[in-house]
Design brief:
Low-confidence stretches: 1-5, 352-357
Order of helices and strands: EHHHHHHEEEEEEHHEEEEHHEEEE
Structural class: alpha+beta
Distance between the termini: 28 Å
Number of helices: 10
Strand order of the largest sheet: 1-4-5-6-7-8-9-10
Strand content: 15-25%
Mean pLDDT: 93
Number of strands: 15
Helix content: 25-40%
Radius of gyration: 18 Å
Shape: globular
């Protein structure tokens, strides 16, 4: 398991294939070890094991959907495979691993992501915890991506070779993500890749929501979006999208839109935890001044019940990262699973390691 200071920072540039090739080459050893560890640790988490052969048919369906919906990212996946010495199926599995893992309505997770956005001029912030199972600390990386011909840089948090997870671009658009459970899951655009697609192509919340309307997501999610001027969350389930705009928003892991609440499949134990984290976030956020420094936003998310520490169970969701993004400043602050450490500070155009506001 890595320490927070060892989170690799990858500066990638070029056409889509080259972005993927550079990413794969930089992380080749880690990705090979990850895939060889119970098929990207899926067999440590699933009740019934999978194999590369058993995954080939669903991966083929995902490949078709990704190539049709986000062709640049399909090409980047091909580059990732070549750079890391993986098969294309292995590189694709890294992108759709969460969909392969699926969801079980009877599971009793102790945590999952807590996300909020507050619009406050230059202090506008989107912050969230990242709660994942699978002991993914050693698979954490932070990416700076500059695509040939693009006017923007994308700063992206990644796990296990993902081309997208959460992040911010140099136009000042930030996007976070929450798991919500409902509706059928199947071949489509994985939501993590959708986040990357939005950051690649949109410069504002409005532009991102327009793009999102045109994507068929493979699984249910809630995205939190903010820019210098506004914020919104967008819940997606079964090809439908529900959007709420406000200057202060928070989301955990149960549906909030009344159209989706009746179809929420989160079990009662997990929902109670989600409600508890949402309330704790709201209370702490009300007590935080609009001009609070980023370090205070990290602190808001770094204690229970919002922060979920490791208890040694690889199947249990726990906090592996805490992130605060400041769109007006072009700044992302990142803590790993040990919140007592100093945050890493990334800005568009450079990276520094520092503490404070």
């Amino acid at each position: 398991m890595t320490t927070d200071a060892a989170i690799p920072f990858l500066q990638l540039s070029g056409d889509p294939y080259e972005l993927g090739r550079q990413h794969g080459a930089a992380r080749a050893g880690a990705l090979r070890a990850f895939l060889d560890d119970g098929v990207a640790r899926l067999n440590h988490l699933l009740d019934h094991p999978v194999s590369p052969a058993s995954l080939a048919p669903p991966l083929g369906a995902f490949r078709t959907a990704i190539a049709a919906g986000v062709p640049d990212l399909a090409e980047e996946i091909r580059g990732l495979a070549d750079g890391a010495g993986l098969t294309e199926d292995e590189a694709l599995l890294l992108q759709v691993r969460r969909e392969v893992l699926g969801y079980r309505s009877t599971r009793r997770p102790q945590g999952d992501c807590t996300t909020y956005a507050r619009v406050a001029g230059r202090h506008t912030t989107l912050a969230q915890t990242v709660d994942l199972s699978g002991d993914l600390d050693d698979q954490t990386a932070f990416l700076s991506l500059r695509a040939t011909g693009s006017p923007r840089e994308v700063l992206m948090l990644s796990f296990g070779g993902l081309l997208g997870y959460l992040g911010m671009n140099s136009d000042g658009l930030a996007v976070g993500i929450n798991l919500v459970l409902g509706g059928p899951w199947g071949p489509g655009i994985p939501p993590y890749l959708a986040v990357r697609h939005l950051l690649d192509r949109a410069g504002s919340v409005a532009e991102a929501l327009d793009l999102l309307q045109g994507l068929r997501l493979a699984s249910s999610r809630s995205l939190m979006l903010c820019d210098r001027h506004g914020a919104a969350w967008a819940e997606s389930m079964d090809g439908r999208l529900r959007i709420v705009h406000d200057t202060t928003l928070a989301h955990t892991n149960h549906f909030l839109h009344p159209d989706f609440v009746p179809r929420d499949e989160l079990n009662v134990f997990a929902k109670n935890g989600s409600l508890r984290r949402l309330e704790a976030c709201a209370v702490r956020l009300r007590a935080l001044p609009d001009d609070a420094p980023a370090v205070d936003h990290l602190g808001l998310l770094s204690t229970p019940p919002i922060f979920v520490p490791d208890n040694g169970d690889i199947r249990r969701e726990r906090t592996v990262a805490v992130v605060a993004m400041r769109p007006a400043l072009g700044e992302v602050r990142l803590l790993g699973s040990r919140p007592e450490r100093e945050p890493l500070v990334f800005t568009t155009g450079q990276v520094v390691r520092a503490a404070g506001g």
